[in-house]
């Protein structure tokens, strides 16, 4: 009670995805565009911890061919700082991943 991070911390690590993750992340995440990267920050739709991801140029190309002129879909991983039981050494986050549609400003 009085804690703004409800069940966070008790979720075990699991590499899972769900359509609802993408919907929630699309609504919640802040997207900052830099010249060669995009920074995504918000709360993980699974574990509800703050997470920030950088998508760099190799993954995010604004000059992609005409097939997808104004939007980009990227897989985003939870990279929260919290501990999740059963997480393999060297990894971060709770294992959740989802697809985020990035609007590309010309
Ligand atoms: Zn977490
Ligand atoms: Zn998470």
Structure description:
This protein has 106 residues and is mostly beta strands. It has one domain. Helices cover 9% and strands 30% of the residues. The chain contains 1 helix and 5 strands; from the N terminus they run αβββββ. The protein has one helix spanning 19-28; strands spanning 30-33, 37-43, 50-56, 71-77, 97-103. The strands form 2 sheets. Strands 1-2-3 form a 3-stranded antiparallel beta sheet, with no helix packed on it. A two-stranded antiparallel ribbon has the order 4-5. β2 and β3 (50-56) form a beta hairpin. The longest helix is centred in the first third of the chain and has 10 residues, at 19-28. The structure holds zinc ion (ZN) (2 copies). Residues 44, 47, 49, 78, 80, 82, 84, 93-94 line the site of one zinc ion (ZN).
> What share of the residues does DSSP label as strand, in percent?
25-35%
Return the domain count.
Answer: 1
Cα radius of gyration in angstroms? 15 Å
Derived structural class: mainly beta
Strand order of the largest sheet: 1-2-3
Number of helices: 1
Q: What is the strand tally? A: 5
* Nearest-integer average pLDDT: 81
Report how far the terminal alpha carbons are from each other: 46 Å
Run of helices and strands: HEEEEE
Helix content: under 10%
Bound molecules: zinc ion
Characterize the largest beta sheet: strand count, sense, and whether it forms a barrel: 3 strands, antiparallel
Oligomer: single chain
Task: Catalogue the unreliable spans.
Answer: 66-70
| Shape verdict | globular
């Amino acid at each position: 009670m009085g804690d703004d991070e409800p069940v966070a911390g008790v979720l075990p690590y699991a590499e899972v995805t769900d359509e609802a993750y993408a919907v929630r992340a699309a609504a919640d995440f802040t997207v900052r565009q830099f010249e060669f990267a995009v920074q995504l920050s918000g709360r993980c739709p699974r574990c509800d911890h703050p997470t920030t991801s950088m998508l760099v140029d190799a993954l995010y190309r604004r000059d992609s061919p005409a097939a997808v002129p104004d939007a980009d879909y990227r897989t985003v991983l939870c990279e929260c700082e919290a501990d999740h039981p059963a997480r393999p050494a060297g990894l971060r986050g709770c294992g959740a991943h989802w697809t985020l549609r990035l609007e590309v400003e010309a």
